[in-house]
Write a structure and sequence with these properties.
By secondary structure, this protein is mostly helical. Helices cover about 75% and strands about 0% of the residues.
Length: about 200
């Protein structure tokens, strides 16, 4: 039987966050392959022992970053109120989801993963499983519950989740990733509204 994991103290958690923030700036600028633990240590300061105590290598650091941003995506796709209408819930989910993807961190992570996937397949697999795949499954569970209540058309929940999230992203995400375009809240809201209407259409 494995020993229980001891949660970090507030001080340890703060130090981990400091390291993650510093490392993320370097990863976003240099790319995963060209970043070294020495660079991260130079940015964070303190002892190397402290750095390696929290994160033994840069792979563990990047995994923590994936988990942090993926956690924001999953949180965005969770219902918040039992009294909110399905349309309002889906709209809020879509806006929050797209906002995370279009955030500076979200775009940087996506660019890093697409550029490094070939060289670091385990990291890219971790990103897919904890990011896009987990998001689809999370939303599919919610949609399956709505189907059981008769609130949604009879369609495979996972397929419906993929279609909805794909419609929400549309070309907005790719235009931000590839062309560096920014999008106003109004544009995001209109895109999500269209995706919600498409999903709820009989």
């Amino acid at each position: 039987m494995s020993a229980p994991v001891t949660p970090p103290t507030d001080k340890q958690a703060a130090k981990q966050e400091e390291i993650l923030n510093a490392a993320w700036e370097i990863f976003a600028k240099e790319g995963f392959g060209r970043t070294s633990m020495d660079q991260i240590h130079a940015c964070v300061g303190g002892s190397k022992r402290t750095l390696y105590k929290h994160f033994p290598n840069k792979e563990k650091l990047f995994e923590a970053m994936i988990e942090r941003i993926s956690g924001r995506v999953i949180k965005a796709l969770k219902p918040r109120s039992a009294t909110e209408s399905l349309e309002a819930t889906l709209f809020r989910m879509g806006v929050d989801y797209l906002t995370v993807l279009l955030s500076e961190d979200g775009l940087a992570l996506y660019r890093a993963m697409t550029s490094e996937a070939r060289h670091f397949p385990e990291l890219s697999r971790d990103f897919f499983e904890n990011g896009p795949e987990a998001a689809t499954k999370s939303l599919a569970q919610f949609l399956a519950l709505q189907q059981s209540k008769g609130s949604l058309p009879d369609i495979d929940p996972e397929t419906a989740a993929e279609l909805f999230l794909g419609a929400v992203r549309g070309n907005l995400h790719l235009s931000a990733v590839l062309a560096g375009r920014s999008h106003s809240p109004e544009v995001i809201h209109n895109k999500v509204s269209d995706a919600v209407r498409a999903l709820l259409r009989d």
